[in-house]
Amino acid sequence: MATDLSPAIEAIWQRSRPEIARRIATLEEAVAAQLAGDLDDDLRARADSDAHKLAGSLGMFGFATGSELAREIEQALDAGDRLVGCAGPRFGELVSALSEEFDLRSGHAVASDDPREPAAGQPPGAIAPGGPATDALPRHTRPRGGAWRVLVIDDSALIRGVVQAGLGGEGGWRVIAAPSGAEGLELAAREMPDAILLDVEMPGLDGPATLARLRAHEAAREIPVLFLTGHRTAQDRRRLEALGAAGVIAKPFDPARLGFEIGRLLGWPP
Description:
By secondary structure, the protein is α/β, with parallel strands linked by helices. The protein folds into two domains: 6-106, Four Helix Bundle (Hemerythrin (Met), subunit A) (Up-down Bundle), CATH 1.20.120; 148-266, Rossmann fold (3-Layer(aba) Sandwich), CATH 3.40.50. It is 49% helix and 10% strand. α5 (157-168) links the parallel β1 (148-153) and β2 (173-178). The longest helix is centred in the N-terminal third of the chain and has 30 residues, at 6-35.
């Protein structure tokens, strides 16, 4: 019988509201700056990154409309100088609609928990405990005592939590989490996981730069890497695979099928 992930996903949603609120606040700051004619490149880049993060994750919480709004905001920001013209008012309308949907879902209250902190009793980078096995997904021939070890590198606590909920609920998976490319490199070299899930857009060392350093590391270079990204076009997929990734998993993804998708992309035996 399949494990019900609903309570775990709801708990992640509660912890992730401050993170989502911060990203929306960045978009609102960009709108105000754009209206004042003062939207500089740094703020535009931060807003674009936050819209990308929101587009790739909100669908996991039933924010189908919110995910599409965030994608449209990304497209508006990509318009560059056109923001000053026809795209400007539309940019503000999209951000307002996204903020209203978030407020409605949140009940106008944001949890005080810092989503950058690990769950109670779990240190940063800890291996998540495995739960009861489920027959919803095909079983794999398990290495190392019967468990695949997967490292997820993502600056979003929301995504790290969803990956841990999706894989940690199965007896055949162990999840190691890192909030940055630099910490991910350290964990990869020390833990030597069977696979790495790597976010594309991160501050500091982004996904492509992290992958390049992994490939230059003698011990970790053979670890297969799957990119996690909110960019969903075939062109984006080809570009990322050309960097040396074993595959691409688009956000939002179904956490209950994440193990199946990893196994499919990596050719792990059933």
